[in-house]
Design brief:
Rossmann fold, six-stranded mixed sheet, 6 strands
């Protein structure tokens, strides 16, 4: 059910984190046909790549060119290193309060974390079959989360924005699956339509998805927009979160 707003922010901007070392490890693993990513740290600690830092810097410079009434008055980030680092670089010198909220964290892939689609099919064929039966939105990896679980986090977060943020312009620094789930909740998108968008659009790193409150609902203004990165001539990347784009694996 689409949330109704009698008060709350005037606008929301969802920012996907810049390219991360995890994105690069995923690229290397897929190219090599490997079953696992070569990462020896937990997902929460994966940092930005050099390109990712350039993308976050591009956001910072782009913000400097915006009118005062277009700049954020508050920012909230996933506590995962790649998202929080994107937020800190993008907001440096802009005098915008930054909060961390674990409800904006990446989807938890549980025991499948760090595995490629090939690895999941080879080592956990029963999970591949279960995912095919349940569908991407409701499939929950062992010890992990489904997209539906992420939607519950998003609904809780949005509920808290109703009080004390009237008229605020809030930027949210988060992750690919979380941004897609915001679309599901804010726009009341049907499951099939959401997954069709997910198949068609790979959300670029450091891209902006923006909403404006119109009456008692939020309306989509831009989706996966790379104007800020383009303006700085930084490299635009569309690296998948590992496991999120392999329909046979997640």
């Amino acid at each position: 059910m689409r949330p109704r707003w009698n008060s709350g922010p005037a606008g929301l901007v969802l920012v996907r984190h810049g390219e991360s070392e995890g994105n690069l490890a995923d690229q290397r693993a897929r190219k090599a046909g490997a079953e696992r990513l070569e990462l020896d740290i937990r997902d929460a600690d994966v940092e930005l790549s050099a390109t990712g830092r350039d993308q976050a810097t591009a956001l910072n410079r782009w913000l400097r060119e915006q009118a005062d009434d277009e700049r954020p008055t508050l920012a909230v980030s996933s506590p995962y290193a790649r998202a929080a680092e994107t937020a800190r670089v993008a907001l440096e010198g802009h005098d915008v309060p930054l909060l961390l909220d674990e409800r904006l964290r990446e989807r938890d892939l549980g025991v499948l974390d760090g595995m490629t689609g090939k690895g999941i099919r080879a080592r956990h064929p029963e999970e591949s079959a279960r995912r095919d039966k349940l569908g991407k939105f409701y499939y929950q990896p062992p010890s992990g989360e489904s997209w539906a679980d992420v939607a519950l986090r998003v609904r809780s977060f949005l509920h808290d924005l109703r009080e004390g943020h009237d008229g605020a312009r809030i930027w949210l620094f988060s992750h690919q699956a979380v941004i897609m789930t915001f679309r599901y909740v804010l726009e009341d998108v049907a499951e099939a339509d959401l997954l069709a968008v997910d198949r068609r659009v790979q959300i670029p790193n450091a891209s902006l998805t923006s909403y404006r409150r119109a009456g008692d609902v939020f309306e989509l203004v831009e989706f996966a927009d790379t104007s800020a990165v383009d303006a700085d001539r930084a490299q635009v990347t569309r690296e998948p979160s590992h496991g999120e784009r392999d329909d046979a694996a997640t």
